[in-house]
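Step 1: inspect the first sequence and its tokens.
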Amino acid sequence: MTNINTIVTDMDGTLLLKAGDAIHPLNKEVLGEWQAEGNQLFLATGRLDLAILKFIHELNITTPVISCNGGLIRDFTKNEILYKSDISLDLVKEVLATIHAQGLDFHIYTTERILGPSKSGKIAFFDKLNETLPENEQVPLTISADPLAELKEGEFPLKILVIEESKEKQAAIKQALSGLPLSVLSSASNLVDIMNKGIDKENGLRYLATQGISI
């Protein structure tokens, strides 16, 4: 890693093992030694940052964390949100109406937790993972027949995740949402991520650069 003083890494499919619940011990060791030399490690993930607290702690991350595909940047050393691109409630309602009309499963990622109508998809994964985690690293989850009604004052929706195996249904939801000011992309073979238009991990890195954070 000579002459490299900053690394930005994704989590799923990159830093994490295939199961998505651990970092390879060798990667952890090498990155730890590299950080100890004064270098910077940034995490940029499609997950909600509160769903990777285990890894933030394991890697001793002190840099701002980019999550929700760039829709949220939080400094955990100060417990401070530096940037968020929350989807307006009217737009969330329009998206959910389309999702319901097509009979699709979904989660809502907010600044505080992951909401969904059933214990499925990522919620099922994180619920199982929580059984192995200490309380301060558990992923905050809420299951409700009406997830949007659960939003509290000061809690903001950042991303809607559709869980669907069918490529035809994925294409249909993308087409149905194409006229809205949204970024709609497939982050995995069975997932469709929905954020505000222009939101991606590169956008998150650009924001940090404008704030004088060296990347």
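Step 2: inspect the second sequence and its tokens, then contrast the two.
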Amino acid sequence: MSYAYLFKYIIIGDTGVGKSCLLLQFTDKRFQPVHDLTIGVEFGARMITVDSRPVKLQIWDTAGQESFRSITRSYYRGAAGALLVYDITRRETFNHLASWLEDARQHANANMTIMLVGNKSDLSHRRAVSYEEGEQFAKEHGLIFMEASAKTAQNVEEAFVKTAGAIYKKIQDGVFDLSNEVKFFRNVCNVLRLMESNLVTRSRANPEVLVPRLLKGVAAAVANGTIYSGVYRVSHCHLPLESSS
């Protein structure tokens, strides 16, 4: 299925707060009560609609253990949105939010949208963190906030979709500058078109060498965040071929 934009998300927070369960509920519409601890990162994706436009969410679920913190930090780069998750029944997971937020602000795009999620709202009878405390933390730090339940699916859809809506608004307001990505991918498409028309071959360039190098360059640029703001507009190769003059 085609889509207009691709948004990269990262899910962060302490071990056992339900990050993987939130992802599974959102992508597969199911709850898995017993879930192995995430080792490094896990990945999920789903299509949604924002302002009548198809958007693909690429979601990275990270490990909460301190031993994997350095790996998690490498996934902040290029993320347009983050779900910062705590468990409303475990006070310590709420107390650690400031540390997670500091990491995110240090290693991620300054314009990243962060949704604070108080998970396990179905266990409100065991609540250790009040709704008002979560709301106040979000207000103080400029975050969006809602409580959710990966088990009952309450507010799970809303958490992911509302984050996407905030990202999309930033695009419309010009907060995310996609011009560098448009220029980069236009140049990539131009080279591919030249190769397709044999112009590169006639100029004695070796396609068997050039193509892998080109694709490797694209992958490296996306991976290190050089041209990737976490928002990828999927229409670059439809742009007109630029003149070589």
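Step 3: confirm your contrast with the notes below.
The chain has two domains: 3-171, 178-223. Strands lie at 5-13, 41-50, 53-62, 81-87, 113-119, 144-147, 231-233.
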